[in-house]
Design a protein that fits this description.
This protein has 12 helices and 12 strands. The chain is an alpha/beta fold. The strands form 2 sheets. Strands 1, 5, 6, 7, 8, 9, 10, 11 and 12 form a 9-stranded mixed β-sheet that branches. Strands 2-4-3 form a 3-stranded antiparallel β-sheet, with no helix packed on it. A hairpin with a 5-residue loop joins strand 3 and strand 4. It is globular and about 65 Å long. The termini are far apart.
């Protein structure tokens, strides 16, 4: 009897061990498919002109020439709910909202009150608002703390200069802008590589950086070529610069965003190893002649909407496993200024796009636009810390643990977010 019980118990234990290993492997495979793309709008986009609070009486009163009309009126906003409407320049994104794949978090941003473009971008990219001494970016810390195996192209930065958000020790692949970004360069020449192998062979840090760079470029090139081959066989799917050049921090304009965004989406879809990506778009510092439903800002938003649609199309089937987050360093003043524009403000709107998003809703704790509710008597207040929006994405979508999250956002104790950003 004892022997039989022993066999039954050990058999059950073996079965449980095999099942749990299979379950862990399946969970790991599922997590490896999940992706996060962050798009930074450098220059501080006017969130009140993106998701427009047309239902607030103080909105139209504060903007004599830049206010957008209510739904149903000529050039009116596209109705989202009884309070908010989408800028008509972003009409190509409305189907994502209708399908439940696009949502927004209003009155969100950094808790630090700075109105400096440089400092505000630094804080949102370091993930430590108010602390300038942080040496690395939160997406770089995230690379090393995600479950699963590392790869040279697990994280991809698209742009001409390395962004603050990816600064750090973890390996990040770099994808330039423009259609010739992956054309052969000197570093791809085998003779040059042989010489660099010898040069960096005695320096472990430089050798690793060089190895990651060459492997990343090679992986991206192979993935793009494979994707182009599949598409050839039928298997796949405007704006100027800011007034303050430093506000853009080297980011390309919205006008050039669409082609690059599609290319980034195609790369992410083609490379099974890529899970994190970052890019930025400049030109949002609209102090003068901002315009309303038509004009400077509307033109930029139309180009941005085209780019986000192209990114989604480039992702193809991968969109169902991808969360795209669009954010900006701060918002703009509620009242327009004397030159038909808006100045540096506080609260803004974060955009969420993708299959896992619980879209079709404007999330967050809306404070209102009454004078008594404004930050410093002039700005939309920040009621949702941007890290409160990102944290559930990192944990529920990417599988980051509580301990790892504390390292990605050090010093952040968490905060309430009104509503759920991801589907149940």
């Amino acid at each position: 009897m004892q022997r039989r019980n022993f066999l039954l118990q050990t058999g059950a234990l073996a079965g449980w061990t095999l099942w749990s290993r299979a379950a862990r492997a399946a969970a790991s495979t599922e997590l490896a498919k999940r992706k996060l793309v962050v798009v930074m709008l450098r220059g501080a986009v006017d969130g009140l002109s993106v998701v427009v609070p047309y239902g607030e009486a103080d909105y139209a009163k504060s903007r004599t020439s830049t206010a957008l009309a209510a739904p149903g009126a000529e050039d009116g906003v596209l109705k989202l709910d009884s309070r908010f409407g989408l800028n008509p320049a972003l009409a190509r994104l409305k189907p994502f909202w209708d399908q439940g794949a696009l949502g927004f978090v209003h009155a969100s941003g950094s808790p630090d009150p700075t109105r400096s473009h440089f400092d505000a971008q630094d804080y949102m990219e370091s993930g430590t608002p108010g602390r300038k001494s942080t040496p690395d970016g939160w997406m770089n810390r995230l690379v090393a703390r995600m479950p699963g195996e590392a790869a040279p192209t697990r994280a991809v930065s698209m742009g001409a200069t390395p962004p603050r958000i990816f600064a750090g020790t973890a390996s990040v692949a770099s994808l330039g802008v423009g259609p010739r970004a992956l054309d052969p360069k000197a570093i791809d020449d085998p003779k040059v590589q042989a010489a660099l192998d010898k040069m960096y062979g005695q320096d472990a840090t430089m050798a690793r950086t060089y190895k990651d760079t060459t492997e990343g470029r090679g992986e991206m090139k192979r993935s793009m070529e494979a994707g182009q081959a599949r598409r050839a066989q039928g298997g796949g799917m405007a704006g100027g610069r800011s007034m303050d050049p430093s506000a853009d921090n080297g980011a390309p304009s919205a006008r050039s965003f669409a082609a690059d965004a599609r290319r980034l989406g195609q790369l992410i879809q083609a490379d099974a190893h890529t899970q994190l990506a970052f890019t930025s778009v400049g030109g949002w510092d609209t102090h003068v002649n901002q315009g309303g439903a038509k004009g400077q800002l509307a033109n930029k938003l139309a180009s941005l909407g085209e780019g986000l649609e192209a990114l989604a199309q480039g992702l193809g089937d991968s969109l169902k496993d991808t969360v795209i987050v669009v954010m900006s360093e701060f918002g703009r003043t509620v009242r327009q200024n004397g030159t038909g524009g808006t100045d540096h403000g506080r609260g803004n709107v974060m955009w969420l796009l993708g299959g896992p998003v619980a879209g079709g809703q404007v999330l967050g704790d809306w404070p209102g636009l009454e004078t008594s509710a404004l930050a410093d008597g002039r700005d939309l207040a920040v009621t949702t810390d941007f890290r409160s929006v990102l944290s559930p994405i990192l944990q529920r979508h990417l599988g980051v643990s509580d301990a790892a999250l504390a390292q990605v956002f050090p010093g952040y104790s968490g905060g309430a977010l009104k509503g759920q950003v991801l589907r149940a």
